[in-house]
Amino acid sequence: MEALYLLCSIVSTCFTSLALSLLLPVHALLRWLYGSRAGAAACESAALYEGTVWHERRRPVRHSFQYAVRYALIDLDRAPHAPPGHLSADEARHFADTNGPIFLLTIPPSVGYEQNPLSLYYCYDIKGATQHLQKCIAEVTNTPWGERVLFVFSPNSDLVAKPLHVSPFMDMLGNWSIKANAPEDNLFVAISVQHPKLGNYFTATLKAKRVSSSTLSNHATFFWLMPHKVAIWIYWHAFKLWWKNVSFIQHPRNTNPRYREEAAERDRGLRCCEAFHLDGMKDSAPNRTVSDSSSGKSHIDRCFVWRDAKWPWS
């Protein structure tokens, strides 16, 4: 039944995207003729990045690929409205326990479709007349299961127990090593999987450069079919891994209803954070930086928040 629903969703999205693509020239013409204050405000609050996503799996078989991507870095405090399905600036500040600007790195929807395996919130703190990147919020979405998890991490480098089944060719064991730089002219994000048996067997990176938005008259054209391309790459390389006889692992919710709680317990076991399982944002306690008097080090008082995301082709 799920396979049939997925197929119907793909067909429906294809027709919708085709129809909306045909309307793009009309939309661009109307904007040129009459202008758009909302569109201009949205453009002013977003920086555009173009770069490459690279994946490398080293065990049990070698498999690597890369593809070109385009991202928007949205100033959530200046944006006319929060992008649908994402946190607002105030929600992100509460979640990360910061007091400065919030920027969201994401691939905007294009012609009726959105696909974001990873979106990042860059959370700044203001001290006096200066501001610095204090924390990041990862917003990880899996496909085709339609789940999403949010958690805070230190951008300098952090180790997080894997909380989400992101691939049918990876189990839930191990940790994510994750880091990100402050986005300026260049942007960098790296995630590797530290597995108890396979070791450091998988790495994914995003490297991107800022492009001049002044040369673009229409952001819709810049991101045209970008989410679709990401989805196609995901499914195509999943097929190639299956073809290479990599073991297929079903979603843990079918075999272990406590997989989320166990991920939180593993995260606590890292001795660098304290994890909580919460069902929503409204009652969530903020993540705080806590000092350990015995070691003199600081750690993030982390909470995982799981949410339902959209069906992958809707």
TrEMBL record:
One Pfam family named in its UniProt record: DUF1365
InterPro entries named among the record's database cross-references: DUF1365
Top-level taxonomic group: Eukaryota
Name of the protein: LOW QUALITY PROTEIN: uncharacterized protein LOC115756371
Gene: LOC115756371
